[in-house]
Structure formats: structure tokens, C-alpha cells
Amino acid sequence: MRNKEARLVKQQLKHLRKAELKLLRYRPDSKSGFGGDFIRSKVPDKLLSMLESAFEKGFFYIFDKGTPLIERSGNLVGVREKSAYHHTVIKRQISKEAIRNFDVSASNKSWTNKGISTVEGAALGVFGIGLPDIPVFLGMIFKSIYETAASYGFNYTSQEERAYILALIRVAATKDSERIIESEECDRIGELIDAGQGTEVVASVEDVKRTSNLLASSMLVAKFIQGITLVGTLGGGFNYYWIHRITKVARLKYKKRFLQGLS
Predict the structure, then answer these.
(1) How deeply is 247 buried, as exposed, middle or buried, from its count of CB atoms within 10 A (0-12, 13-18, 19+)?
(2) Region 88-115: what's the mean pLDDT?
(3) Is the pTM of this model over 0.90?
(4) pLDDT(124) > 70
């Protein structure tokens, strides 16, 4: 790598770290809480148990059978082909434009997923239905992550990459200071994978359960509100918020791995 290219990559990583620190910085999570402890205290314990079960089943289904369906719906073959072309270009010369091509490819895909889940969540919310949208919601989350991974040239089907995906979801779903701990763990997993030591971090059943339960707990109030007729139209906004939040973390993390691979 030429000196000019090395400086550019270093500068890009510096900007990315600033954006990451801003994302990880402690602040009350008013969006996901929406109403805070008062509304949360009114949520029946049974709802949390139902949410945890629904999210857990959704995660296991996607990992077991759902990925091929998501690949077809997202034309991920085309995304990978475009990424391969961009990699060919950037191997010849690292430039701002070459790096930007990866960013544009990753960002263009997320809007459709947010829109579908928002409309679907709001429509079900009108009828006071808060749980049946979970499979579609999770499908949109994984579709966004897969498309982001493929845009930057990363695999998403191996056991070790599944562990990485679960880790980045936990970064988005974790509150307050624990977010930094989860972020560091996510980076550690990515570094092991990229160093060829991914067999040390394969996704376990407990990883899936911990991640799905964390996401269920984070969305508890949102799904409670979505289950109230008419008021439930707010559920579409929550779906948008969470897909946006998780996709933002995915873009930061995958771009970091991508840039580190160039340096």
C-alpha cells in the first residue's frame, strides 16, 4: 500500500471511530423505552415471556431455514457481484471514491427494509396485533444485516459470522454503559474471524437465546403499545427505529472490518 493510500485509510478509520463513539456514548434510550418505567411497569409479565419465545423461535428459524429465503428476496447474489467488482477496483487504487462505492451500495439497500417493516407494523397495529409481525420484522433485520455484510464483501452464513451478527445486534439492543462492552466483544469476534481464528467464536445456542431475549426485552414497551388497538399504529415507527438502529451498527462494524482489511 502506497503512503497516500495508507493515510487515506487511516483518516477513514479515524472518522469511523468518532461516529462509533458517538453511537456508543451513554444516553437515556427514550425511543425504545417510550414512556419509560411507568409504561414498563404496566406491561404484563406474560407479554415478556411471549416476546422472548417469539423472538427466540424467529432467530432459530432464520438461522436454520430462513437465510435462503432472505437471499432470494434481497437479490444478495447481485449485491455480492457488485461488491466483487468494487473490490477489483479498490485493489488497483484505494481512493475516496472507491471506498464511497461500498458505502453507497450498503446504504441504498436499507431504506426498502425499513419501509416494509414500518408499513407492516403500523397496519397490524391498527387491529391491535403486536406479535404476528415479529417474523417479518426479524426477516427485515437480518435482510439489512446480510445486505450490509455482502456490500462490504463479507460472508454471513458461516457459524463464526453468525456469532458476529448476533454480537452486533446486541450492541444495538444493549442500553447504557453495557453497550461499550458488547461493542468490544463484537470487535474481538471480528478480529478473530479476519485473522483466520473464527472457529473459536462459533455461534452457540446460548448466544442465540441471549441475543433474542435482549432484543425482546428492549422492544417490550413498543410491542405492548402496538397491541393496543389504534394506538398500535405507533408500532410501525418502532419497527423503523429498530431496523435503522441495528443497520447503523452493522454499517459501522462491517466498514471498520473492511477498512482494517485494507490497511
Answers:
(1) buried
(2) 79
(3) no
(4) no
Residue 26's pLDDT band (boundaries 50, 70, 90)? low
CB atoms closer than 10 angstroms to residue 45: 7
Total domains in the chain come to 1
Enter the C-alpha cell of residue 34.
417510550
- Amino acid identity at 197: Q
What tens digit of pLDDT does each residue of 233-257 get? 444 466 778 888 899 999 999 999 9
> Is 79 in contact with 147 (CB distance < 8 Å)?
yes
Grid cell at residue 51: 416476546
In 3D, which of 86, 212, 210 has the Cα closest to residue 151? Answer: 86
Tell me if 194 sits within 8 A of 260, measured CB to CB: yes
Range of the domain at 230: 3-262
Q: In terms of DSSP H, where are the helices of the chain?
A: 3-24, 30-33, 36-42, 45-61, 67-74, 76-92, 96-126, 134-151, 159-173, 178-194, 205-218, 220-226, 235-262
**pLDDT above 60 for 128:** no
Least confident stretch, 123-137, 191-205, 214-228 = 123-137
Q: What is the pLDDT of residue 176?
A: 72
Nearest to 98 by CA among 19, 166, 161, 12: 12
Measured between its terminal Cα atoms, the distance across the chain in Å is: 8
CA distances from 118 to 108, 125, 137, 142, 176 (A): 17, 10, 9, 15, 26
- Among 200, 175, 206, smallest CA distance to 188 is for 200
CA contacts within 13 A on the Cβ side of 18: 6
